[in-house]
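Before relying on records like the one below, remember that each one covers exactly one chain. Contacts with other chains, cofactors or solvent are not represented anywhere in the record.
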Amino acid sequence: MAVYSPFDAATLRDHATDYARLLAEEPVSRFEGYDPPFYILSRYEDVEAALRNIEAFSSQQGQGPRYTPPSGMVCDPPMHTLHRGLVQQAFTPGAIRALTPRIEAQTTALLDAVADRPAFDIHDDFAFPLPVVIISEMLGVPAEDIQQFKHWSDASVEAMGAEDPTPWMPDLEALGAYILGQIQARRASATPPDDLITRMVVAESDGVRLEDQAILGLVSQLLVGGNETTTSLITNVVWRLLEDRALWERVVAEPALIDRAVEESLRFDPPVLALYRTATHDVTVRGVEIPGGAKVMLHYAAGNRDPAVFEDPDRFWLDRPPRKHLSFAIGVHVCIGQEMARLEARIALRALVTRFPDLELVDRGERIKPFFLWGRRRLPVRRGAASS
């Protein structure tokens, strides 16, 4: 019996190729084809339990498949509590709602730019620039560097999943130097701008301020996380709706379904397929002993297809009864930007179905490269004659 591999060619083409067998036959497995080898938890119940049990499944050695030092919010309390608290105010429900006019304006500007074109790319022309501009403005870094940010973002996630991150180190060093320059400029200014970087620079806890390297970790995570997953969410939901024309036409006719479409996309095609923890001691899950120190892949996407939790899990279903998916994690490390991602995706989808109701899929494009992420690197579309 073949052991599930996240690197199998069929799995890379379609992340859900082998979930049914994985869930039924190998809910806890060990994958030897990576250095270091790692264990995989795939059932919803087990992934949820591990996410909540940070004492046994720690983020202190990174949330990627390699062992990395704690940084920013990728760590355990109390460091995690301090760092998350510094940026939490920018992601409260009220703060996110206040971004609505700016997101709508940027959405309109991007669609205006393609309004006279018979064909365009959902990723390059829309889903990529929208969240990058928004998070860049929040942080206070110039959005005109958008292509450079995308390059650095791609390098960051490629390095995170690679056995050997060396090829991406020059880009990571360039990103670090850029962010440190932004931090130092604010420290040197008598009147720094009111943005997230400035708030981190001036923040104090018990009279102690964050050092530059700590702020660098936080800003890097927000810059990458604030665009990569939202871009994939937008491309994924548009892809699935256009792939089944009846779904797209139903959302065009019933815009009230937009929220459901976004949530079903998150369940069906999570932008982050999985993240990792490190076992702090020997742990037994379903009779399999995971030794202390082992890396453990928490497979959000497989858990989201668990038939014990989701009826007809391999169906993209707009009428699915509400049930919490795993795509933004659960517990202490729940994604801080989840509501902003949802808001941007809802606004983006509403604008597309309103302005381009006859939008058609040219082809499914190609997937992004990192094995633990899922999204379209390209998603070419064309407009029907009735689009306006």
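DSSP finds 16 helices and 14 strands in the chain.
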